[in-house]
Design goal:
The protein is of the alpha/beta class and 406 residues long. The protein is 32% helix and 24% strand. It folds into three domains: 56 residues, no CATH class; 210 residues, Vaccinia Virus protein VP39 (Rossmann fold), CATH 3.40.50.150; 101 residues, NAD(P)-binding Rossmann-like Domain (Rossmann fold). The chain is built from twelve helices and 18 strands. The strands form three sheets. The chain has a seven-stranded mixed β-sheet, with helices on both faces. The chain has a six-stranded mixed β-sheet with strand order 15-14-13-16-17-18. It is globular.
Length: 406
């Protein structure tokens, strides 16, 4: 596939399509029973590589208000792994950058899982969250959170009301924002002298090496590399001065960004750039090869499920995740294949999965009548889940890098 489109970041007509996962529903749009017979919104989930600025991105996108609304299904605090991760993240930012009285702003704070860790006696802590239901959960923790999309206009309002920020941070958010230019314009308005923008998102090298095609869905507009981000931030007189690989979400990168000259560039940046060059993330054939591996993964998963079913084994899904929506729809796995999907998010119980309409049940049902096999639809939490379910006797199936029982 080599359809050429206009890159939404550099503006050049140099965006070449390399994969399509077909027509997809919104990954987090779980359905009530009375709605499963209605027409479901779908769009073509196709991805391209910009040969000019090297940014990987969705070609077709979904309106942000359809994805981030007052019924947003993902609450970060359901994961102990993420609780621990965000505590360490907030401690690091505090120790490295903050002084008493500084303003700290989180873009996309969800239910306050990280924001709550900052000492509100020392710092002015403020969150921006576009989905009102999860923002309300953060406010119920006593956090100062507004429901809005972050852009330059909002940044100017915050400066007038609260002053400028020493730290602006985000976690698994920046890649969601199609209007990335607007975000950085807002950051430029908001940052004080020696202020920093710190964010982490799924990393393109991990996606390719783990064959993690389920990282591709409607919310993830961009698939960042250090190379592409350096090209982007240079447009705004900003520099990535440090970076750190993370294990979260199946492999992420944390980026530290400042205005040019504010901080010395760490050796980590040159090391990561060298690694990206060696892995040829700036070359289109790298992504064509990834697309072939995705097709292979699909074929292997379907064959494995058919084999297990032919043996008379019971199969369910485990974790009603956005990633799972992609795997189920791309591979054509329906309620005929999986009895149900178990999940520990109260707001999802009793609903049906997007596209395939597989019922979502509580973990209690999973424990009371364990299946023989379960497709692990949140493979990035495999260690936590396997430890949690070690007494169940259930065998877990994952699709990455290729389908297998773990």
């Amino acid at each position: 596939m080599t359809n050429v489109c206009k890159c939404r970041l550099c503006g050049e007509e140099s965006l070449k399509e390399f994969i399509t996962l077909g027509m997809m529903p919104i990954a987090n749009a779980f359905l009530k029973k009375e709605n499963i017979e209605n027409d479901e919104y779908k769009f073509e989930l196709n991805v391209g590589f910009c040969e000019n600025c090297k940014m990987v991105q969705l070609i077709d996108t979904v309106d942000k208000t359809m994805m981030f609304n007052d019924n947003y299904a993902y609450f970060s605090s359901v994961s102990k792994t993420m609780e621990d991760h965000f505590k360490k993240y907030s401690d690091l930012l505090t120790e490295r950058f903050l002084e008493d009285g500084d303003l700290v702003i989180e873009i996309g704070c969800n239910d306050g899982i990280m924001l709550k860790n900052f000492d509100r006696g020392k710092f002015n802590v403020f969150g921006v969250e576009p989905s009102d239901n999860v923002a309300e959960a953060a406010r119920n923790r006593g956090l100062n959170v507004i429901t809005n999309f972050f852009d330059q206009k909002l940044a100017e309002k915050i400066v007038n009301e609260k002053g400028k920020a020493k730290v602006i941070y985000a976690a698994n958010v920046m890649c969601h924002i199609e209007a990335f230019h607007e975000v950085v314009k807002g950051v430029k308005v908001l940052l004080k002298d020696k202020g920093v923008l710190v964010f982490e998102d799924p990393y393109i090298i991990d996606i390719i090496e783990k064959n993690a095609y389920d990282q591709i869905y409607d919310e993830h507009v961009f698939y960042f590399s250090l190379t592409s981000l350096k090209n982007f931030f240079s447009q705004y007189g900003m520099t990535i001065f440090d970076c750190e690989r993370q294990t979260t979400h199946g492999g992420s990168m944390r980026y530290y960004v400042c205005n040019d000259g504010d901080y010395e560039i760490k050796n980590s940046v040159s090391v990561a750039m060298k690694n990206e060059s060696e892995k040829k993330i700036y070359k289109f054939p790298t992504y064509e090869n990834f697309a072939e591996n995705v097709k292979k993964s699909k074929k292997m998963l379907v064959e494995l499920l058919n084999k297990v079913k032919s043996e008379g084994r019971r199969i369910t899904g485990y974790a009603a995740s956005s990633k799972g929506t992609i795997v189920l729809n791309y591979c054509g796995i329906t309620a005929k294949d999986l009895e149900y999907i178990s999940d520990n998010t109260p707001t999802k119980i009793g609903l049906y999965s997007p596209g395939m309409h597989i019922p979502i049940v509580s973990e209690k049902e999973f424990h009371e009548n364990p299946p023989d096999y379960a497709i692990l639809l949140a493979w990035n939490y495999a260690k936590e889940i396997k430890e949690k379910e070690k007494e169940s006797g259930v065998k877990f199936i994952v699709h990455i890098p290729f389908a297998r029982v773990i």
